[in-house]
Structures
1.
Amino acid sequence: MTSKLDRTFAQLRQHGEKALITYVMAGDPSLQDTEQLVVELEKAGADIIELGVPFSDPIADGPVIQQAAERALRSGASLRAILSMIARLRAKTQIPLVLMAYYNTIHAFGPERFFQEAAQAGVDGLILPDMPPDEAGPLKGPAAAAGLPLIFLLAPTSTSARRTFVARQSQGFVYYVSLTGITGAKLLNLADVEKNVGKIRKVTKLPVAVGFGVATPEDAAKVAAIADGVIVGSAIVKQIAAYREKPEMVKHVAEFVRSLKTAMRMAQPKSG
Amino acid sequence: MMSSVPNKQGRFGAYGGRYVPETLMPALLELEQEYARVKKDRSFQSELAYYLKHYVGRPTSLYFAQRLTKRLGGAKVYLKREDLCHTGAHKINNAIGQGLLAKRMKKPRIIAETGAGQHGVATATVAAMFGLQCEVYMGTEDMQRQALNVFRMRLLGSTVTGVDAGSRTLKDAISEAMRDWTTNIRTTHYILGSVLGAHPYPMMIRDFQSIIGREARRQILAAEGRLPDCLIACVGGGSNAIGLFHAFIKDKKVKMIGVEAGGMGVASGKHAARFAGGKPGVLQGTMTYLLQGEDGQVNLTHSVSAGLDYAAIGPEHSYLRDQGRAEYTSVTDDEAMAAFDILAREEGIMPALESAHAIAHTMKVAPRMKKSQILVVNLSGRGDKDVQQIANMRGITL
């Protein structure tokens, strides 16, 4: 079965483009803001939007996203409220929406119920940063029944055995973590990223998206030359944090996203 | 019949596992392999035994607390004196084991988290002795109430890094240590201090601590010619408790009781009694009983004792409780403080505030038992580190 993510990557490929995947923390600073951001970021050039589900103990995240989660929790953003927001959004936009959630939030919700309600609300995929495929067995049935892709991550430390194992379990795309570290760290070694993306391509036909450490339009352009998708998180969340009390917040963040997409397009040689 | 746990996936029944970012998976798999190797390696085991004997001071004594027994008027109370270990608590049993492992894996840098500071001090000590670079993460709230241990770690040459996130206690220190490990994984071994986190940590740390129960079993047989009726230990993550329990698990007649931090009372919501107020969930790499809200956010905890002030319990304890093999209860801050005074005055032993929880429950249980019955209580650490905090709580300036 092809998912909306599959179709999005296929369409972009036809146009000789790479996917810009933008991350925002749902509920930061409020769910109304997130709703508006999704609509405006799509207009500014985002191809897929990753919505963070706030968690009290985000072990894979650096301070920028930790603080965003704290703001979102203070604003009352629960998984239930986030799904309602997504259902509302579906009247306005069909952009693929992927949830990024620490497993405990799904566990507390009830995995079976979660997959049903998420698919109904219009979620297009799920990333669980603290659940490698080794532990995801019990989720596969409910996820498949709901038609929701489970997207798994690979890291620079992944061995060749794990690269094959994880890539084959992943659906929609493979999320390559560009560095050994947490979100918001500085991108160090593009040659290394290129080498590892190449190795992943040898074991899967899925698109490979690169995240962690992509902060500027220049970074985005460079990564776009290597991968099928560019994931930008902390850099966007930082802008939201800085402008969160100003009326022009959404407009400002949209401008930043536009600059990312423009840089990616310029770097991309037109093909076909 | 209980089978041997954990299984190959690191599962203790429904609990445990490996819920971590992919970046850490290869390191956990490497650690699991390396640990399986050294477990069977005679030279490693004899090196470990050497340090436990000559550096830590093992075996620790099993002391018959005569005056406490008389005062309580029931079962004979024996104290397993982990407070007599070098650095003042059982934590060093694990720190030595993992320090040796880090050396074998050629990791020049170690990191640790600490709540009460006991594990941090043990790790800093081992790092100094083995010549490893060491950084310890500690919540800023805990740094305040355990200032003495912070200074001790610095004297030992370690860096202590304050963590100013969330509740600013043990939980946040673990998250920060995991982030450091994720970033520096190629050069660094993470010496986790309790039977928590992803596989193989809960199993490996249990094994390193199980010397407590192996000694106690031998010692009580020598002293009394029979096994005890009941074991009591405090449970934060639960390493001292599992260390005492492990050698007795197959002795079905030996009752095992874990004592959690009841804080200001379970009804107040200000506590760390995971079995009384929690339900299964995933925190920091493992599936276990967890204090959490309806939508899976982890609750803030409270205990007078920094070492018990944690929202989750080691996965093997969740398993032992589900199996009915161990039972768990809690005592309040006030009960633990009262037990501290009684042990100090009756026996001349100041327990760590963590261990005072085990003493407090002993004071409830022993009087209801027959004089012919035997209780073994794990005195997991000494109270010197808590003297300043107790003075503060009593409005005394030292």
2.
Amino acid sequence: MKLIQEPDFGTPAVASEKTVTLTVDGFEVTVPEGTSIMRAAAEAGIAIPKLCATDLVKSFGSCRLCLVEIDGRRGTPSSCTTPAADGLVVHTQTDRLKKLRRGVMELYISDHPLDCLTCAANGDCELQDMAGAVGLRDVRYGYDGENHVKAKASDGTDNFRWMAKDETNPYFTYDPSKCIVCSRCVRACEEVQGTFALTIEGRGFESRVSPGAHESFLGSECVSCGACVQACPTGTLQEKSIIEIGQPEHSLVTTCAYCGVGCSFKAEMRGDELVRMLAYKDGKANHGHSCVKGRFAYGYANHGDRILNPMIREKTSDPWREVSWEEALSHVASEFRRLQYQHGRESIGVITSSRCTNEETFLVQKLARAVFGNNNTDTCARVCHSPTGYGLGQTFGTSAGTQDFDSVEQSDVILVIGANPTDGHPVFGSRLKKRIRQGAKLIVIDPRRIDLVRTPHVEAAHHLPLRPGTNVAVLTSLAHVIVTETLYDEAFIRERCDWDEFQDWAEFVSREENSPETVGALSGVDPEEIRGAARLYATGGNGAIYYGLGVTEHSQGSTTVMAIANLAMATGNLGRPGVGVNPLRGQNNVQGSCDMGSFPHEFPGYRHVSIDEVRESFEKIWGVSLNDEPGLRINNMLDAAVEGSFKGIYIQGEDILQSDPDTHHVAAGLAAMECVVVHDLFLNETANYAHVFLPGSTFLEKDGTFTNAERRINRVRKVMTPRAGYADWEVTQEIANAMGANWTYTHPSQIMAEIALTTPSFTGVTYELLDEKGSIQWPCNDKAPEGTPIMHVDGFVRGKGKFIRTEYVATDERTGPRFPLLLTTGRILSQYNVGAQTRRTANSVWHEEDRLEINPIDAEVRGVKDGDWVRIASRAGETSLRALITDRVVPGVVYTTFHHPSTQANVVTTDYSDWATSCPEYKVTAVQISPSNGQSDWQLEYEDQARRARRIASSVDAAE
Amino acid sequence: MSAAKLVYKANQIATFFQSQSPDEAAAGVAAHINKFWEPRMRRQLADILRHDDNGLKPLVIEAAGDIHFPQTTS
């Protein structure tokens, strides 16, 4: 292993079919037209000295180090800003250039500290490298003159040009004395991240990098994505981990374990200590970009709360007792067998994790089907994207986003509904904003004014701030406009869809009840905005729809997904780059966990358990007979537990007590079980009700694959040994074997081989191919040996695309005199889902607690001021949190995040759920709010119960 | 699952298929329940169907003939 050094070509690649040929230092190079001379030279293997150029951002031409001479042209142009052209004869090293470069370097170094040996960037400093490259041997100017380097002038007075180090950001420092004002950070913030938090203040020698208007990094708009730090050629912007540890010596490419974007990172190591995560330029999802979570928030892996020994207890009121792996596993096996003997084969089940690898998920569902002998397997996707599976399965024939992320670069109209990409999927959000800055139009359908609606250099053409729960009405109304104004793509529909079904659907959407005027009245959206948005989507060129949990987590979640698919089919926006239907998946491996057969009704590859040949194909390999009846979903497992017919569960990497709706019901279900096995990194909330705790492994501690929202299978690589001894797949295998199975996997690649053997869309997937290609988008089989970036190109998976009527049915969760407001929920950039990981990192400086967003009008009526404690009550329960007064939400709507267990947001949410998939209706809860003097009794009681439930016998003895 | 909840879910499914083509509505409800409901839930639905005034929508009752009701406890 060595440190992966990615080449920096100096300027971004250019996509042009026309090529030009030039000569650089006698070597002939052919490059796409528009490529810079610097990049052409780099492709020929000649590194022209440079400081302000990097291929992550456009060329700038400020450092004057990359000068070249060109035969027949005057002067010494900068190679980063001069395009290559046919027949150019370029010289990168002449006496004149050598002298000029040395002069430039000498000036740079004359205003730079000479503390190279003790500088954190030592060994990874382009300024140092360039001083060496140009042969700088002397600096004649001395340091007595004006400079930014020394705090005091030589006469002892303060040097007003000097600025102290800014250490406010928890993950990196800004040391202005080391800055060479190359603007790479400023440009990365603009071009790559799109936040525009950084600028250059002052002019000439006074020029300084400044977050916001001379603010601190933490106090500015900076979102801590790390792009500026990655772009900085010196130690000016430096990861604190490098300052503390030193430079890494080897690295491996792996995949982020946070959201569904699935960014590739280099895990840079010194020994088995992780030094930093650096966005990988060759990562196909992120192309070298990152967000505050993936780039920096990995500290939870070494947090003191990690549980490293298996533990058991007889009753959940007992303290935990640490035991050996052997004892824990045989206890689990004997309990599960006992329960099945006493209460029937169907009395136990599993929950697979969307955070674990495909291979781990595959084994957990296999445990249920092949070892338990039932189909009681479900996954956290139940509570997020199960309607995507159903809706897209019905309309297109498979549960998958249709595009790759690169597709957005060719979109002309982008419709975002029920998603907040700049918070929830930040790296994709940045790519989306970049496309909008290039001129694409944006439509946002969201109850809340999310950042995308109006943010620097991005403004939505239409924002439809609909009432929570009216998605189907509004989307069907868009269809109404498209059909009644004949904006649909008849040729596409006739060729690719069932024309009779289309006509039936067209008749339905054309009805008066779906007109913008009628729908406007019930959804609170201006009918003209509905018409404008429909016209723009249908006629504005390539139209792409991106959606998230604001679509799925409703009583009509599946219907909304169908409505989205109908719109894309009606306008011909499928089957080519720039268009499509794109579910933004919440967790790193939601797509994968669904693909791997986590749902109780289907085997890997979305094939129903009742299909004989599918079952037989697994039976042949697994050597057992398989159950042909669907198993229980999570919520039904809990129902069955309360009734007494479901007694034991193995939960890998999901915290259902915090993440599932109606906390009281979840707690009652768990409390009714006799053997709850939680396999996780931490004693999560669910573990308060567990009898066995098995310590899990982080994504840094195991091999495997994650599949992101674009169906891209990315490798996860083990960079350190599992702290608790076993990777999660090994633990599942041990449980299976303790129950009598004879599994003999020694590496996850063997599990992937079994997946490929049994699952038609994965036939061609191997670890060798993943290593070779970097990643693969399924389907990958004989028909598509290198994977499938865009689906439904020549026809839908199901044959003809199916139009389905989408009648709006108001949710039964309604406002009334007692509960006049609608609560909806979402995520924030710095925290992730239930917060188990991010709360255990410094990310909490951005979000210490969940707040309730209330419109000023609603707040004033109730006498609530910003920062006040408010009680929020629904039909299901009540909790308290602090108010945040903002007009991001319209009157009548309140909003909160759900990252902190003490908030207990799901005490308030109801058990209404999607009609088709039982995905809970998180996004609509009728509530009332009133001033409060602190946490509710339930919150205090809960915290007390949680504290008691987390006692560990040995450590309690030692501590008390 | 409580009977009330089961009735509610079945009616939700019926509401969706009610809006589809009338020829396929009942078959749609039955197919959906057969495909996604665990035998315990279908058995409980059978019990509910035996009572008059069970709160189920007519379409669910119409679909009952095509719903596969398991006979014995596994």
